[in-house]
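Exercise: predict the fold of this chain.
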Amino acid sequence: QVQLQESGAGLVKPSQTLSLTCTVSGGSITTTYYLWTWIRQPPGKGLEWIGYITGSGSTTYSPLLSGRSSISRDTSTNQFTLQVTSMTPEDTAVYYCARVTPSNYGLGRRGDYWGQGTQVTVSS
């Protein structure tokens, strides 16, 4: 059973950089088939897909964050991370990491494995 757990700061000040880590167990992030993905859900809104890193280490980002996001990984600890620079209150959301089947990317939770999510609030 694959499990994912998000960790990181829950409160970030405007203009600061958010850093979140996803710890994966029960599966390797070097598995080439899946997309190791970050998604967020702002209050009262739908899911927003931020981007992903593949098993080979290549990354793809949605235009959602206008180049402010960066995804990396540490294969020795089986973790992947999200950094978002220049945070604003509009970035307040629950942030999720997930292992996503490529055909499901952008389509919601469809049998893939998701973390429980972590609340990130941007406020001074």
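Check your answer against the key: The mean pLDDT is 95.
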